Amino acid sequence: MIGTISNLKHLLALHREGRLTEAGRAVGVSDTTVARRIRTLEEALATTLFLRSANGRYEPTDAALQILSHAENIEASHAAISAILGESTNGVTGSVRLSAVPVIVNRFLVPQLHHLIRLHPNLSIELVPSAENLDLSKREADLSVRFARPSDGGLRTKVQKLGEVSFVACAATVFSPEQCATLGWITYDEVYSRLPQARWLERNAKPEDRCACLRVTDVETAMRAVAAGIGKTLLPKAIVLSDPRFRVIEPDDCAKYPSREVWMLSHVDQTSRVSITAVKEWLVNLSWH
After folding, report:
1. Nearest one of 159, 103, 165 to 129, comparing CA atoms
2. Which of 43, 120, 212, 287 could cross-link to 92 by cystine, CB 3.0-4.6 Å?
3. 95-289 carries CATH number 3.40.190.290
């Protein structure tokens, strides 16, 4: 049948992944199985659903785009029913795909994940560390956590502020306070000069302070560079205070350190999924300080 969950699952997987191999991996089958399923749908509908582009990606045709929105609704409804049935017998079950930038995944979510697992042992969590904004409308992720309030996402996306992450200047503990004063600042690439911590460095690092021979594009890299003794920079206070490799550097002239807002994105069509509600409640109660 055209509309079986299995057929639609393969259709959605190829749309989201763009390649047969990745689509097969996403649904746990071979690439040939995905190709066969797509051919079955095309024959049943008497139309072409995907065209392969010059870079090897499979792009949906107009006919496919008309079907995909309905397929996503069916997928969401099926997931909601499965979650309800699972909850009635085994508590909260199912799988939730959660995306965030690497530093949030590695330094905030993973250390506090045991609370969620203890509360819902039958719930499966897939953490996706990605600097890119995954498309919730294409189900590339069920939930997304980002720094700063998102300006995109469309009407089908809900946003909620989770808290704020405060930054402090720090260096490796192998350096004395006197040595810290002579360390160079690890700065950010010009493309990322809009980041609050990058703007702070631009305003408050004294002209006579030398810069370290390193520019970074993300907090995770900056953290590793400080730990390696390359220089000093701004890092999330929660990380610095919990990691014995770092020491806080008090700001000169009472310069106030910056902070960054943390926001959660979810899809409006998934509000009925018990598994997603459980993860959202966990995120709301996390400590970001």
Report:
1. 103
2. 120
3. yes
